[in-house]
C-alpha cells in the first residue's frame, strides 16, 4: 500500500508537522501546503519576527497554536530550530489534530 504524501505525521500523543518558515515577512500567516522538488510536503508559514534569539520560532509556535485552537505549551519546535525547514511537535489527540491539519492537505490530482 502506498502512503499518501502529507505535511504531517500522526504519532502516539500528537502529530509532527513539517513547516517551511519565512521570517521577516510583512504579516503572520499560514499560506497552505507546498511540495518541494524532492517530493516532500511542508506547511508554508510566514511571521513578522526576525530569525534571531528564537523570536521567529516563538512567533511560529504562537501562530500555529492560535490557528489550531491550542495552548502554546502544546506546540514545540522539535527539529530545525535554526533552519527554514522545521519539524513542529503538536501534543494532543492525534485524530483530532489530523482533522484540523487535513484541511491544509495538498490538492488531489
CATH topology: Conserved Hypothetical Protein Mth637, Chain: A
Integer average pLDDT:
88
Please compute the radius of gyration using only Cα atoms.
13 Å
Helix content: 10-25%
Major beta sheet summary: 6 strands, mixed
Strand content: 25-35%
Overall 3D form: globular
- Name the quaternary structure: single chain
Total number of helices: 2
CATH homologous superfamily descriptor: YggU-like
The CATH architecture term is 2-Layer Sandwich
Low-confidence stretches: none
Q: What is the end-to-end distance?
A: 18 Å
The ordered string of helix (H) and strand (E) elements is: EEEEHEEH
Instruction: Give the count of structural domains.
Output: 1
Q: Could you give the count of β-strands?
A: 6
> By helix and strand content, what is the structural category?
alpha+beta
Description of the structure:
The protein has 109 residues and is α+β, with helices and mostly antiparallel strands. The protein has one domain (8-102): YggU-like (Conserved Hypothetical Protein Mth637, Chain: A, 2-Layer Sandwich). The protein is built from 2 helices and 6 strands, in the order E-E-E-E-H-E-E-H. The protein has helices at 55-68, 94-102, and strands at 8-11, 14-22, 29-35, 41-46, 75-79, 85-91. Strands 1, 2, 3, 4, 5 and 6 form a 6-stranded mixed β-sheet that branches. A hairpin with a 2-residue loop joins strand 1 and strand 2 (14-22). The longest helix has 14 residues, at 55-68. It is globular. It starts with 7 loop residues before the first strand and ends in a 7-residue tail after the last helix. The mean pLDDT is 88. This is UPF0235 protein FHS21_002099. It comes from Phyllobacterium trifolii.
Amino acid at each position: 500500500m502506498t502512503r499518501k504524501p502529507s505535511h504531517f505525521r500522526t504519532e502516539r500523543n500528537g502529530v509532527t508537522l513539517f513547516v517551511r518558515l519565512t521570517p521577516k515577512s510583512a504579516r503572520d500567516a499560514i499560506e497552505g501546503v507546498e511540495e518541494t522538488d524532492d517530493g516532500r510536503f511542508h506547511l508554508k508559514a510566514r511571521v513578522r519576527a526576525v530569525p534571531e534569539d528564537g523570536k521567529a520560532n516563538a512567533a511560529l509556535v504562537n501562530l500555529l497554536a492560535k490557528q489550531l485552537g491550542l495552548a502554546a505549551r502544546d506546540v514545540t519546535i522539535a527539529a530545525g530550530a535554526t533552519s527554514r525547514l522545521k519539524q513542529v511537535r503538536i501534543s494532543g489527540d492525534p485524530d483530532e489534530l489530523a482533522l484540523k491539519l487535513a484541511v491544509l492537505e495538498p490538492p488531489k490530482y
